[in-house]
Amino acid sequence: MDRLISLDPSNLVPIRIEPGEKCHGQITLRNVMYTMPVAFRLQPLIKTRYTVKPHSGIISPLATLTVEITYHLPPGSILPHSFPHSDDSFLLHSVVVPGAATKEPSSMFEAVPNDWFTARKKQVFIDSGIKVIFLGSPILTHLIEHGSMDEIREVLECSDPSWKSVDSTDPQGNTLLHLAISQKRPDLVQLLLEFKPNIESVNTNCARSGSGDSVSTTTPLELACSLGEALIVELLLANKANTERAESSTWGPVHLAAREGNVEVLRLLLLKGADVDSRAKDGNTALHLAVEERRRDCVKLLLANGARTDIRNGRDGDTALHVAAVTGEESVIRTLLQKGANKDVKNGQGKTAYDVAAENGQKRVFDALRLGDGLCVAARKGEVGEVVRLLEGGAVVNGRDQNGWTALHRACFKGRVEAVRVLLEKGAEVDAADRDGYTALHCAAEAGHADVAEVLVKKGVDVEARTNKGVTALQIAETLHYVGITRILLNSGASSDGLDQMAQSEKMKMVKKKRVGRRNSEVEHSMALAVL
């Protein structure tokens, strides 16, 4: 036999350290003798650091006794002298005391005479392997900050499950998950997730996002999204983290990802079903924030996932288009318009996006927001004076609408020859093609305007230009029996050599079908412009 007393848990005494609380732990001593009582004495080698209660006593056969060990923190310190393992150790003396079997239970924990453990005739066992491990919030937060993986695991495994140590917080209110995420350590996050923390806990500290703006509170997922930590976001989502904004948070995960331009994180959230139109506390959507911060890729991703362009924020009643007008991001404005944003919607102050752009001196977006529409209207109506006025006021002569049509396309389609001349004099690109490959010459040929075709030819238009389907202006004119236009094009070098009659017939069916569609498009667009 090498010992009279067994220890639980083993030879390691867990002592919990918490600010403002007594630092203590417990160890259970068990008498392994079946018939004989055993006396014990438990002493720390450094007596000033620890108090042991009871430090000695007698344990009945096969009985147990719980001993409390209190640690005295150094003055002014919240951490022990060393951790999580202490170099300190304890000596456990034990001896069989047959004559003590008749003692009353009330006297079992009285101090045992020291000579019981020194008498030569008795067999005294000495266990010097008892060590201390410190647990608790300060210990864990310090280990997290220093990335001590093995020690973190050991402390969590040694902690009483009822303490829920994995949800420990630092003095500023950050949980262990928040601290691990702030360090951008997916390995630490994965380790903590093994111990089932509260994944929706919010910190009470004013955490910092990537842009330096303060955030009132954040969940772990919100913090990971703001930092752009895609792998950590995946881990949290795999553990059922809520993709929506916490009630006490200013912004939710999608808002933070969009605002910081973290496209991959935003994609993960949307794939997990995050509400693309969810509101931040101030009423902004992720689209508002992405536009405000000029996050073009995030804007495109949000729109591709169905983000609404008509939502007004709670602050000024602005739509995303109003926000874009403030920043003057022309590409973002055109993207929003292509996705159906209404440029005539007024905000809470009764202002359109154009009004907002004008207030902020964003002249480069005037064309997209209003002047381009006005130019198209004037061109299709043949109002030459208005065309000149708009161009002098900042309208872009080669500006395009959502279909890729320029003012020159409009004027040619309607046969406004004087407007065509003015636009060409002001720098209109004669061979500009819309998204289907149609040039101004195709438009003139479709509509049968020979005088317009003649002006374009004199300006050097490419008479062999083909649409995306391979159709030339000459083929359109021949099919529609516009003899005058056909003659003009042939005289200008347009070639009809090598045309297969059957192939040409098939092309012309397509041209006629396209012509109807383009005329309908012209009508629809004209109706929209008439509202301005």
Features:
532 residues, alpha+beta, Immunoglobulin-like, Serine Threonine Protein Phosphatase 5, Tetratricopeptide repeat, 3 domains, five-stranded mixed sheet, four-stranded antiparallel sheet, 22 helices, rod-shaped, disordered C terminus
Short description:
Helix content is 40%, strand content 13%. The protein has 532 residues and is α+β, with helices and mostly antiparallel strands.
Describe the protein's architecture and organization.
By secondary structure, the protein is an alpha+beta fold. It folds into 3 domains: about 5-135, Immunoglobulins (Immunoglobulin-like); about 200-360, Ankyrin repeat-containing domain (Serine Threonine Protein Phosphatase 5, Tetratricopeptide repeat); about 370-530, Serine Threonine Protein Phosphatase 5, Tetratricopeptide repeat (Alpha Horseshoe), CATH 1.25.40. It is built from 22 helices and 11 strands. Strands 2-9-8-4-6 form a 5-stranded mixed β-sheet. A 4-stranded antiparallel β-sheet has the order 1-3-7-5, with no helix packed on it. A hairpin with a 5-residue loop joins strand 10 (about 205-210) and strand 11.
